[in-house]
């Protein structure tokens, strides 16, 4: 959990704060959101804002990102920051692997139900449904109607995702979201005489096109598709690919493996075929010529500095690739650099929606809702809490937030391509998001830390499939058998050390960068 929390904090820190604007602009542009001049000290209020994770180092960032603008235009409000898990408490403790890790959800409930409950809670989508089911949040629909707060301008898939978690009702709003799309290289399709991808294509359609444009050998190989920018790992690609299908490795009690099934076999066969036919690049391909210095085939044979050498899409070697909205920044930088250095390639690109499965139509959007704002059912200052949520989700604030090139704003009217660029921005938010990981699964991993080791068998078995030493059926049956044995050992000893099974290693951390 601590690694996951650090990863979440890293995501926060990467984002550009939209409040780094002048006080004059804030005062003029957001005056309509203010509830009064607040000059009377007797009318001062305390508004408590709760976050899942925090510490003394990032409180300033949280204030810049979420509360400074509100305090500036509401001088009668004093903001207090609270957190469910504060890592200052653990910073100087001696690490103890046998010490139980705190249950994030239970800590979240304590923050909401404690003696001094928070008024507003800022959370990610994976916790929203459970909080709603436990009646810990206030329904916002009546407040939206009473205040005539405009939500028609919100991205439909964002609202749909929120309603799905709330049983059809709205219990939170978010000013921003993260999203991905399928980037494609226009020239590679033109050169191959193949029509480029379009929105709402299936995975089968995309894989067919990928095979049609792939060609060449060695360092000149042109690949049809890549699941991401940097990692060519077949097993983790299969996890990304299958996310909308919500396949499970084991049952809800973590007692029986569930990988020897037709759906798992289809996923592994699809991914293995792409690697065996060299339609997608391997990690070796991505590392091939990975230095930033490269010799051009010129008479001078002089090395050319190329800061984008390791990016196969920018270097016109991958025809289609899944990447986040923030990748547009990298593409813009590469274009600017190429204009000054003609020997460095650039790419003519656009985006379409991520492919979908026929079994899960319309689902495939990698939309991540991490800044959901909700009102605690026990809020002591629910009036200001709703005002705070309206402020952060207003059109005025969206206009300022829209300057970010790392996240997208939830209001459609401010979603526009980056200055001077033209691309299909709707591709990032057209599809319905993949549901977040089940909280009960997270609880299983927390109660049985050794569960992560069940994945240890998958990667070497997948490699044997690629090397044609085993069929997919044989590999999945072996994973099922070894996994069942491992689950039995974990059931008998949830936290203790485990002996390797069948020569396998131990320890895979799904939060360590690929999970």
What features would you describe in this structure?
The protein is of the alpha/beta class and 515 residues long. 37% of the residues lie in helices and 11% in strands. The protein is built from 18 helices and 13 strands.
Key words describing this protein structure:
515 residues, alpha/beta, 4-stranded mixed beta sheet, 18 helices, disordered C terminus
Largest sheet: 4 strands, mixed
Given the structure, what is the number of helices?
Answer: 18
Helix and strand composition category: alpha/beta
Sum up the overall morphology in one term.
globular
The gyration radius over C-alpha positions equals 25 Å
Distance N terminus to C terminus? 13 Å
Low-confidence stretches: 1-29, 289-299, 503-515
| Structure summary, number of beta strands | 13
């Amino acid at each position: 959990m601590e690694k996951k929390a650090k990863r979440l904090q890293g995501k926060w820190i990467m984002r550009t704060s939209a409040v780094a604007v002048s006080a004059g602009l804030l005062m003029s542009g957001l005056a309509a959101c203010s509830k009064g001049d607040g000059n009377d000290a007797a009318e001062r209020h305390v508004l408590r804002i709760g976050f899942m994770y925090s510490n003394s180092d990032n409180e300033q960032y949280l204030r810049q990102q979420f509360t400074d603008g509100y305090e500036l235009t509401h001088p009668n409000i004093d903001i207090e920051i609270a957190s469910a898990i504060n890592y200052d408490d653990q910073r100087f403790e001696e690490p103890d692997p046998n010490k139980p890790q705190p249950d994030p959800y239970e800590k979240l409930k304590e923050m909401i139900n404690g003696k001094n409950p928070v008024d507003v809670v800022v959370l990610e989508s994976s916790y929203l449904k459970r909080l709603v089911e436990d009646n810990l949040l206030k329904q916002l629909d009546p407040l939206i109607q009473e205040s005539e707060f405009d939500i028609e301008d919100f991205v439909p898939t964002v609202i749909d995702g929120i309603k799905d978690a709330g049983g059809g009702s709205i219990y939170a709003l978010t000013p921003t979201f993260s999203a991905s799309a399928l980037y494609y290289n226009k020239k590679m399709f033109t050169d191959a005489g193949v029509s480029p991808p379009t929105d709402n294509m299936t995975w089968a359609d995309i894989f067919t096109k990928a095979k049609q444009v792939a060609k060449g050998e060695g360092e000149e190989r042109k690949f049809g598709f890549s699941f991401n920018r940097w990692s060519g790992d077949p097993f983790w690609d299969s996890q990304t690919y299958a996310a909308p299908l919500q396949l499970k490795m084991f049952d809800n009690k973590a007692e029986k493996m569930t990988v020897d099934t037709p759906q798992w076999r289809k996923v592994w066969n699809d991914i293995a075929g792409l690697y065996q036919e060299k339609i997608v690049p391997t990690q070796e391909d991505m590392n091939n010529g990975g230095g930033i210095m490269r010799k051009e085939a010129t008479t001078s044979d002089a090395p050319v500095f190329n800061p984008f050498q390791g990016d196969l899409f920018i270097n016109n070697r991958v025809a289609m690739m899944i990447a986040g909205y923030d990748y547009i920044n990298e593409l813009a930088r590469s274009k600017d650099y190429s204009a000054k250095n003609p020997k460095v390639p650039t790419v003519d690109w656009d985006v379409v929606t991520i492919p979908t499965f026929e079994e899960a139509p319309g689902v495939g959007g990698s939309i991540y809702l991490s800044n959901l704002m909700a009102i605690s059912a026990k809020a002591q200052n629910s009036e200001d809490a709703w005002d705070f949520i309206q402020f952060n989700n207003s059109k005025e604030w969206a206009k300022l937030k829209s300057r970010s090139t790392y996240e997208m704003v939830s209001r459609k009217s401010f979603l526009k391509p980056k200055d001077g660029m033209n691309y299909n921005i709707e591709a990032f938010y057209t599809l319905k998001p993949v549901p977040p990981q089940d909280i009960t699964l997270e609880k299983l991993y927390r109660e049985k830390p050794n569960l992560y080791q069940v994945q240890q068998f998958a990667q070497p078995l997948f490699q044997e499939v690629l090397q044609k030493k085993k069929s997919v059926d044989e590999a999945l049956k072996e994973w099922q058998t070894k996994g069942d044995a491992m689950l039995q050992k974990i059931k008998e000893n949830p936290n203790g050390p485990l002996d390797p099974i069948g020569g396998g290693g131990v320890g895979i951390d799904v939060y360590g960068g690929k999970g």
